[in-house]
Amino acid sequence: MNNTKAAGQTRREKYEQHQRRRSMLIAAASTILVLAALVIFVPMAPGWEKVQKSFFNAAVLTKTFPKLLDAFVVNVMIFAWSAPAIAILGLFIALARNAKSPALFPLRIFGATFTDVFRGVPVILTVYLIGFGIPGLGLPRPWNSPFIWGSLALVLTYSAYVAEIFRSGIDSVHPSQRSAALSLGLTELQVLRDVVLPQAVRNVVPSQMNMLIALQKDVSLLSFIGPVEIFRQAGVFKSLFANFTPYVGAAIIFLIVTIPATRYADYLMARQMRERR
Amino acid sequence: MVKLISIAAASFAFMATTSLAGGHCAADKTLTEGKFTIATGNPAYYPWVMDDAPESGQGFEAAVAYAVANEMGFVAADVVWVRSSFDEAIQPGVKNFDVNMQQYSITAERDQVVDFSVPYYTAPMAVLVGAGATDTAATLEALKGLKWGAVGSTTAVQKIANTVKPTNDPLLYGDNADVNAAISANQIDAAMFDLPTALFLSAVMIEGSKVIGQFPSAESDNADQFGMLMEEGNSLKACVDEALTAITENGVLASIEAKWLQNTTGVPLIK
Amino acid sequence: MPKLKLNNVVKRFGENTVCSGVNLVVDQGQMVCLIGASGAGKSTLLRCINLLEPIEDGEIFIDGEDISIPGRNPQDVRARIGMVFQNFNLFPHMTALENAMLAPRRVRKLSKSQLQPEIENLFERFELADRMHNYPDQLSGGQQQRVAIVRALAMKPEVMLFDEITSALDPQLVGEVLDVLLQLKNQGMTMVLATHEMQFARQAADKVCFLKNGKIIEEGPPDQIFEAPKQVETQNFLARALK
């Protein structure tokens, strides 16, 4: 009576299979149309040949790609030492802003000012002001390196955003968790460290991933104060060859790194949404 | 009869002047008929343009521009100045200038994508050092050990890499102002500019700095030749070249150079 | 000397007086059930006893010691009083065993290897041995609540407070939790329960207190309260509650 899996399909299965086939056909047809339009009509534009030579020049791309990859290593290095610093400083600022004891009031003010300032000023300005301004005070080498102060500018800026995300994570842990932990005799510090923070951090990992992805790209801002990372290197090539293809090459390299990262972040978000339900 | 002759003479004279105005060569070849549009940098620096005001005709490139325009048959009032960046100069699409004049070095690679006029100036490359390195010897040996910087979009980058071959990787910047900031902050010891620019920066912009040497211009890849940049295949090129050749041969170019760039002597040659 | 004594305890939240002069005595080994409508102040009273909420006025004594002196560090008192909550409040990022071991490790400063046998024993006693390494989201409501009780017991408390611990459970899971409560009572634990389980209170409690508007209107042995309540409010409440 109930099990129709043996032979033939139920009428609903038939219907859904028909619908699926139909949507796939429509999707395939429209994709082919769009691609055809791009491939056929775009080159018909009068300026296409020039644009292709200027932006999508295979010869220039092959010539410049290896050195662009080398320059990208600089981006990776800057990212590698900045990201952990941002995580640590961000957590510290979040805790500072949440400090409840009256003795720690100056810390609260400091935290609030910090996040206001560094979220309020455009990153590029911070990079310039700190990257040139502080070394300009007369520091000896190597302490005046733009790598140090430019990275610091990135760290200060991103910590402000990361701190706010951590704070929202801490707030998202239900107060009953704190009640339960306190009623077991744990101190406030132990409650924070063993119960609240582990949950808070887990809660905000997807949002923090988005910050990481943004950081990967903002590392290029250090190119303005000296370091020869991929954006600057692409610019050197642009000037040398009077051609914009190196920028396209740089974009490709960025995408190779950021697309997997973005997919992973999306996956984490989706998983978290599912768990919440 | 006299009336007829005078009318004829007047109209003949009128036709002669109108045919000269707008240039016989440049007719139908400029962006705007009857006008010669020149692009320069934003801002335009001394000694190429004085006070960022190219319309004044003051400054080496401003003066050369008006001389070339005049040779092509444009009066001063027909010269229009616009500002543009290097990117705008090389990107595909309609340009907003006839020629672009901003100390652009003529290179073979660039020539494949844009057109250059014949050179209007040969600029030796010079080394500018900050206050902490002013006693560096003018030898390649000594220069190797310095921390170098340059504007990323200039040919100085390649010169440093190929001629100086420094032991430390150079830092690169977006414009002269940032290089100045880096020298002042002692993040770099030395930077390479064309000689007139180097002298200007040293005298006015960076305290305690000094131009310690210039590369002998006899060696072909040590001196930059500046040319006016044009869209590839621009038919105006022939006219511009003709005009530039004319003012080179009749000494006008040399006197402009003597007027605006005379203090380029006295800088030692690098061995 | 009573184990727990509340003297005229007053608790306010802003303009709202939630407990208005509560007097309560709990002897060692007694089970006292607090009954009353929602909002009568039962939960708040319990949270005052283990100093989760500071009281406005009055005193709270444990073994004759005033634990409610303003500014006194509440931590050591809380270690001696165990509390179990309506919504279990287990730590989701830890297994049942880790939940139970956290406080003893931190507060009693014992190492994992010293502590583990003792805690595992506790789990066995309450028939949760096979669930020790599960995370809270892998346990049923009844199991979670029993783990919460074990977690509180791991600190070897002298008094246990229970804040409507069966109210969030499916009816068929309530029984296993009430059995644990009986087990604890038989082992001599001093217990104060806020509860809606009237049957259970009737059978197991030594004393029942009826609260309304932050005051104990009537208290006495279960027979008296449930069979022959003296106050009108008690009668009205029971008439609705026992329907």
Search tags:
heterotrimer; B: 271 residues; alpha/beta; D-Maltodextrin-Binding Protein, domain 2; 2 domains; 11 strands; 36% helix; 18% strand; C: 243 residues; Rossmann fold; 9 helices; 38% helix; globular
Structural class of chain C: alpha/beta
- Assigned CATH class of the largest domain in chain A: Mainly Alpha
Number of domains of chain C: 1
* Helix/strand class of chain A: mainly alpha
Alpha-carbon distance between the two ends of chain A? 35 Å
Task: Give the uncertain stretches of chain C in residue-range form.
Answer: none
* Largest Cβ-defined interface: A-B, 32 and 33 residues
What is the CATH H-level superfamily of the largest domain in chain A? MetI-like
Largest β-sheet summary of chain A: none
What is the percentage of strand-forming residues of chain C?
15-25%
Mean model confidence by pLDDT of chain A:
92
Task: Reconstruct the topology from this structure.
The complex is a heterotrimer of chains A (277), B (271) and C (243).
Chain A: H1 11-41, H2 48-55, H3 58-98, H4 105-120, H5 123-133, H6 146-172, H7 175-183, H8 188-218, H9 230-241, H10 245-276
Helix pairs in contact in A: 3-4, 3-6, 3-9, 3-10, 4-6, 5-6, 6-8, 7-8, 8-10, 9-10
Chain B: H1 2-20, E1 36-40, H2 60-71, E2 79-83, H3 86-90, E3 99-100, H4 108-111, E4 114-116, E5 121-129, H5 140-144, E6 148-151, H6 156-164, E7 171-173, H7 176-184, E8 190-194, H8 195-205, E9 210-214, E10 223-226, E11 229-231, H9 236-249, H10 252-260
Parallel strand pairs in B: 1-2, 1-3, 6-7, 6-8
Antiparallel strand pairs in B: 4-11, 5-8, 5-9, 5-10
Chain C: E1 4-13, E2 16-26, E3 31-35, H1 42-49, E4 57-62, E5 65-66, H2 75-80, E6 81-84, H3 96-107, H4 112-125, H5 141-153, E7 159-163, H6 171-186, E8 190-194, H7 198-204, E9 207-212, E10 215-220, H8 222-227, H9 232-241
Parallel strand pairs in C: 3-8, 3-9, 6-7, 7-8
Antiparallel strand pairs in C: 1-2, 1-4, 4-5, 9-10
Helix pairs in contact in C: 3-4, 3-5, 5-6
